[in-house]
Design a protein that fits this description.
This protein is of the alpha+beta class. A hairpin with a 2-residue loop joins β11 and β12. α1 (21-32) packs parallel to α8, α1 (21-32) runs parallel beside α17 and α14 crosses α15 (427-443). The chain is globular.
């Protein structure tokens, strides 16, 4: 299908497909550099997976960090990332990320809407590695009253960080509230929560935290910059000229076909293929193909497939931002983050045996789960644990809803042999596993998997214990909760260079086409540097794409453009 100059319904300098953190950061950057910019979003709400995430941002040496602790040696950060990625990520990509991250955050820091804080103590995921930090480098947006969005408030994607009666919870609050029955910090957090509920009854605020606060604040910056955001607008085709330069897109906007020209190129920020079952079956490991994804429902691989249609290379397609998860009986996916650090608990396979450090970073946990064939696994804990700590959105001392039992997600028994029978594992093996674990708990040292050795393990552990992640499992009744190999989104996608330009298999760039976030092969390789190592790179490489587009005009053919499928 040929597209002439007269056929364009809209023309901008820079077109961004996707309204998550990466797309919004790119839009802010492009506007700051003087580009006429438009963001289009497939869904009815803006924010993508960023909005339903915890909202952490892992960008070392962001101003929020340098103001507090003076910042990091960039060489240490490079060493850390090179160690984690084991040579699978081009050095230029890592260099660009480390160098450009602070520059992006300095740009955002200029806006009065961007208020962030350091989540001090939330360790990097591998703090023991060279360059890792036990204090952590994660920053997060301060709570935000979404009434300030005015007419846009109704179009913001919700997330799970909002509690009943207007209660809002930051990641720091979540950390403390998990210990409400154990520590003064937990009890103080509960009193703060009660005050928030009471004050909201008077002030009627619409407070958001986590990813929703981040997206709301970025949207405010975009509004100030005059960047429009079209919802319910799905890209259906990339448009190229006769020489293969990407010059725009064809999109479906609320049922009408629109053709949008982009004089400086198109950025794909459309997420991964989380909810495209055909792509999951094609690319992911067999035991990770079931759709247990907490990513945005609109993430169906649109950008990846569009890039492949132009000859783009892909990488890391067999990997994801894995997250051990529980299926809520109503269909929701509940990630298990803090729960795996509960001291009187273990996770066992179908043989009734432990297979890894339960408290390890979630990507590593599921890698071990998949590689060993331990899907599903069973989270086993005693009544002491149930009464002390929250689990899967169920508060301490509160019973699991009957629906959890009816669906087979949760089993309960007075003895370990009875529990083993209920979940179909060998009773002798389960009893032996618990007895061995209890011995480690008494000594404070996990001799099998090193649980509790890392500062990351201990962050969500119980500080009143000698080993915050270990305690004896002795008090019945006992519980077993089915643990799936879930994910927060896929992490494989289009191969890009250090300027976010999409590359072909021969290493040449597809001129005019950029990508960021889970549409790309992650700069983290198969690893996860710290909380926010999905959002941080997405934002930074969106920034880099916009900056490159602003500095480089497209080499356009004199021939009429043609639409490419």
């Amino acid at each position: 299908m040929s597209v002439t100059e007269q056929d364009w319904d809209a023309t901008v300098d820079f077109l961004i497909v996707g309204s998550g953190g990466g797309g919004m950061s790119a839009g802010i950057t492009a506007a700051d550099l003087g580009l006429d910019t438009l963001i289009i979003e497939k869904g009815k709400k803006f924010g993508g997976s960023t909005a339903i995430s915890g909202g952490g941002i892992w960008i070392p040496n962001a101003p929020t960090l340098t103001r507090r602790d003076g910042g990091d040696d960039p060489n240490a950060i490079r060493r850390y990332l090179h160690t984690l990625t084991k040579g699978t990520v081009p050095a230029a990509r890592i260099e660009a990320y480390v160098d450009a991250g602070p520059k992006l955050m300095q740009l955002l820091d200029r806006s009065p809407h961007m208020k962030l804080y350091w989540v001090k103590g939330y360790s990097d995921y591998h703090p023991e590695e060279d360059g890792g930090s036990a204090l952590g480098r994660t920053i997060e947006c301060k709570p935000f009253d979404t009434r300030k969005l005015k007419e846009d408030e109704q179009f913001q994607r919700p997330n799970s960080m909002k509690g009943p009666l207007g209660l809002w919870v930051t990641s720091k609050d979540y950390h403390d509230l998990a210990m409400v029955k154990r520590t003064w910090a937990g009890r103080r957090a509960s009193m703060v929560a009660a005050w928030r509920v009471a004050s909201n009854m008077v002030l009627r605020r619409h407070m958001s935290t986590g990813g929703r606060a981040l997206v709301a604040r970025l949207r405010m910056v975009l509004k100030d910059a005059g960047v429009p955001l079209w919802l319910r607008t799905s890209m259906t085709e990339l448009v190229t000229d006769a020489d293969g330069v990407v010059v725009g897109v064809v999109a479906d906007r609320a049922g009408e076909t629109v053709r949008i020209r982009a004089r400086r190129g198109v950025l794909l920020a459309t997420g991964g293929f989380d909810h495209n079952q055909q792509m999951r079956d094609q690319y992911l490991p067999e035991l990770g193909r079931a759709n247990v994804s907490a990513g945005a429902r609109e993430n169906t691989g649109d950008g990846i497939r569009a890039g492949q249609g132009l000859g783009a290379a892909v990488d890391l397609m067999d990997d994801a931002w894995w997250m051990p998860s529980v299926f809520h009986p109503m269909g929701a996916v509940i990630p298990l983050v803090s729960e795996r650090c509960i001291p009187p608990s273990v996770i066992v396979n179908a043989r009734g045996e432990r297979f890894t450090n339960e408290s390890s970073p979630y990507v590593n946990f599921v890698h071990d789960q998949l590689e060993g064939g331990h899907v599903p696994a069973w989270f086993v804990m005693d009544t002491k644990a149930k009464n002390r700590y929250p689990f899967a959105q169920v508060l301490p001392n509160m019973p699991f809803p009957q629906g959890f039992y009816d669906s087979g997600v949760v089993h309960k028994a007075d003895t370990l042999p009875e529990l083993a029978a209920a979940i179909g594992v060998p009773a002798g093996a389960l009893v032996a596993t618990i007895e061995r674990f209890n011995g480690f708990a008494r000594s404070g040292k996990d001799e099998d998997f090193g649980r509790g050795d890392s500062a990351y393990d201990r962050y969500y552990g119980d500080p009143t214990m000698a080993n915050p992640n270990m305690d004896e499992i002795v008090k019945g009744p006992f519980y077993a909760i089915r643990c799936e190999a879930g994910d927060l989104g896929t992490k494989g996608g289009l191969v890009c260079d250090e300027n976010s330009r999409v590359l072909r298999g021969d290493g040449s760039a597809i001129e005019g086409l950029y990508a960021t976030g889970n549409t790309t092969a992650s700069v983290m390789g198969n690893e996860y540097a710290g909380a926010g190592a999905t959002i941080g790179p997405s934002m930074v490489f969106g920034y880099l794409a916009a900056r490159y587009a602003a500095e480089h005009e497209l080499s356009l053919s004199e021939s009429a453009p043609v639409a490419s499928t």
